[in-house]
Amino acid sequence: MGIYAELVGNVLTSPTMKQVNTPNGPKRIVELRVMSATYRRLDDGTLEQKDDKKFPVDVTIWNEPHTERVMQHIKTGASVVVKGDLYVNPWVTRENDPQSGVHIDADSIALNLVRIEQVVFRARRVNESGGTVEGTERDGPVNESVGATEFDR
């Protein structure tokens, strides 16, 4: 059994999309790096980051339908919440020094509201039966939403 973790931190590297070969054929993934952030509340109510408890975490998003949204909305410096399977990734350097890092295969990634100043939601449109459906890029100009990108693997 693995470790399921929730990581709160700041995006260190802009997301990059890659195509990888899997047993089920080629698949698009998104990779990014997040610096974990641990805070403590001071007596005056403000939050202070605990520098001794931060470390970089590599994140991979395997859910293809949401890779475009992650590429569109998640940028360097953004505060995010990542949930998924966590594991330690060991390797050996060219100098033969053993190293290790932390990796999360993400089930979900969301913008942390801490740094959000404005949210603009996508316009809804009415279909022929009178119900509403979400707008898409094919519908013409649409305000992009800024907010969480949740997905299931």
UniProtKB/TrEMBL annotation:
Residue segments, region Disordered: 130-153
The keyword Phosphoprotein appears for this protein: no
The entry's keywords: DNA-binding
Pfam families on file: SSB (PF00436)
Top-level taxonomic group: Bacteria
Keyword Aminoacyl-tRNA synthetase: no
Molecular functions (GO terms): single-stranded DNA binding
Protein name (record): Single-stranded DNA-binding protein
Organism for this UniProt entry: Trinickia symbiotica
